[in-house]
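User: Please run a holo structure prediction.
Assistant: Happy to. Please share the sequence and the ligand.
User: Here you go; the ligand is zinc ion.
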Amino acid sequence: MSALYANETEGVNFIREWYQHRSRYASLKNYKDENKVFIMAPHGGSIESGTTELALATAGFVKNFNGDTDTSVTHNYFIFNGTNPKDENGKLHVTSSHYDDVDANELVSNSLISFAFHGCTDGQPDESTGHGYQACLIGGRDQVLKEILEAQLKNVGFNAFITTQDDLDGSLASNIINKNKRSRGAQVELTTSLRKSFYTKHNRKDRRKNTTADFWLFINTIRASIEEYEVQFL
Ligand SMILES: [Zn+2]
């Protein structure tokens, strides 16, 4: 990301935000670590629109939202928000396997479970039926978490499935989401139309105040999936 940071200015072209709980235990072996879970939106703001709000809510930080999560649990997170004018945010997209932000890397490397939100177009998935296609493609190297996510999201009616499609499956070891303590994380690619269905106003300022019931169903299902998985590490 060094080229990006050399050419774009923090606070003008982009805003980074993160939260880190204090660790209760420094030892890697001790799984009673408050930093178990890490949530990320590497291409948030206006880059892959709608992913910032999804990451914040999944991490449990919903103070300024028009809704609430089922539980009050909070997780660590890192969000990179593209804040350039329209059509100038694509250049802020650094691929996940070249994502060398120091703070993001520290957060992921101190976590046991990591999960990222991405956005793709309606037409990108091989399964796409064209414009208006709503889908959640599950990827990453954490097979167990992927299966829990797929089962739970399908169970509540989302078109969610594990993908093996190149460049959407997050399978590279060098993908930042796979750089946690266990070298495996999970990610979702949400099509534009699925992300749109989560908001009645779809811009950076208004989104969090204009979420839909489906947004909270999606968020709470992902949070429940992570909770189900977390039990293994208690
Ligand atoms: Zn992305």
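The mean pLDDT is 93.
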